[in-house]
Amino acid sequence: MKFQQLNAFKAVYELGTMMAASAHIHVTQPAISRLVASLEHQLGFALFQRIRGRLVPTDKGTAFYLEVGKAFSALEHLEHSARDIAEQHHGSLHITAFPMLSNSFLPAILGRLMRETPGLKASLKSYRSEEVLRRTEIQSCDLGFADTDITSASVTAIPVWGDCVCIVPANSELAAVPCLTPADLSGVPFIRYENSDSAQQALDRELQLAGIHSLDVVEVSFASVAALLVAEGLGVAVVDPFTAQHAQLSGLNIVIRDFHPRIPYRFQILYPAFRPISELARAFVDSLFSQAEDAGIRLRYDRNDDL
């Protein structure tokens, strides 16, 4: 089965005629006909039938087109990956990160590093964790930050843990309480994450143990959205401290309070496994931990890991 056969079939299926397909992929009409016919012979079933002079896909032809579409999508994905790899430059620092960090804490760290390293070429791109992992797997970034349990032989992963905090509107009575507990959330409008979120699952367990039913008013996907809603006075939320501090420094009218028992959040620091860790990547990670400590954010990780 050759690419030219699949390309011809795809063009005929999508455009409806041999003539249109010929013009689209710049192949003569007789060549298009031969490619489709040879593909049908190889497959052992007809892809099209002629009805009143028109080419109409057979049921098997339609089913096969769906599979061909997947193959072409994979090729496009491969092209994007190749472009990512080709755009890497010596002496640069390319970071991919999930929104919890890319939208809050990491820009300030990168800014400081760039001021300390004249001429540094850098990028900081925000993706969902699955895409961060993929880009680290194909070695198209120097450093990644993601919330994922997936492991890969192409990636060196260092797990990091911390404790969530509670954010409340500044005019809330809860703002006067130094450390909040599940009991404090009873009857209070609450902004929650999706059920698949690990921190939300941990909080739900603690609420259940305490016999507390949260008054959920809004469900969100990102902590930054939760912080905006808290600032609007719609309720309270339990979020990571990076987002909480960034929201407060950005002028949002919220108060940050500790929460007990601890509600853990986690992320992983990802390095491409098939090349040495760059000094710039090491410096960035060192700065992450030192600046987090300066901000009162306690991070835990396996001290045996090579950071």
UniProtKB/TrEMBL annotation:
InterPro entries per UniProt: LysR_HTH_N, LysR_subst-bd, WH-like_DNA-bd_sf, WH_DNA-bd_sf
One Pfam family linked to the record: HTH_1
Alphabetical list of SUPFAM superfamilies matching this protein: Periplasmic binding protein-like II, Winged helix' DNA-binding domain
Keyword Chaperone in annotation: no
Gene Ontology process terms (BP): positive regulation of gene expression
Superkingdom per UniProt: Bacteria
UniProt family annotation: Belongs to the LysR transcriptional regulatory family.
Keywords: DNA-binding, Transcription, Transcription regulation
Organism listed in the record: Oceanisphaera arctica
Molecular function GO terms recorded: DNA-binding transcription factor activity; sequence-specific DNA binding
Name recorded for this polypeptide: HTH lysR-type domain-containing protein
Domain HTH lysR-type intervals: 1-58
